[in-house]
Amino acid sequence: MTQNNPAASHFQSVGEGYAKYRPTYPIQLAQFLASQCTRHNLAVDVGCGNGQFSVLLSNHFKQVLATDVSASQIENAAAVPNIHFAVEPAEHCSAKDNSVDLIVAAQAAHWFDLPRFYEEVRRIAAPDCVLALVSYGVLSINDRDCNARFRQFYYDEIGPYWPPERQHVDNSYTSIGFPFEELDYPQMTIDREWTLEQFLGYLCTWSSVIAAAKAGKRNLMESFAEQLTSLWGGPQQHRRISWPIAMRLGRV
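== Methyltransferase type 11 domain-containing protein ==
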């Protein structure tokens, strides 16, 4: 993602919200990706956001380089001794040639200039390097009425305000070109037990919600929040939220 990418301004401004509300990845994902690597010297987490997944990778690699175009995101990352955070675009990585054993882009690759990113991947990849473009899809709520109201909001109401790149997330990255030998991966999900406040806080980090508000349609989120409140079951009620994990996984 280059500095003049229209998504950059969004991520520059929501780093704190991402750190507080965005769902973290399961430890099994980092364990699995590490198990696919023949060496564990250096992993690069590209488009790392506030470093949630970088921290999980740091348990399996001697060093992690975590990069993001947004200074706001990096400022909200937790300091970890073997993680180096850097503000830089995906298409210009500071890693040395032939030095990286795992390259990950978690919920970020749809923002990249992919041909240029893949050039960098080939440059920095060590022999047998693994590349994982990870995404998590449309969530579900373990309550029929809440889930039905959410899906109406996602597809019919806020849907027009998603940037075009969102289609790649909705179709599990199957529409993204991937010029590498592909590997299989196990089924995984992100699961959280959230209150209504946590769930609505997460939605407020969405670029579509922010874009709708800027377009004078703040009432879309307000109306949805009001109706969901009546369905949720009280401020202390926890609901299970699940996101399916998909990825394009390959060996460079």
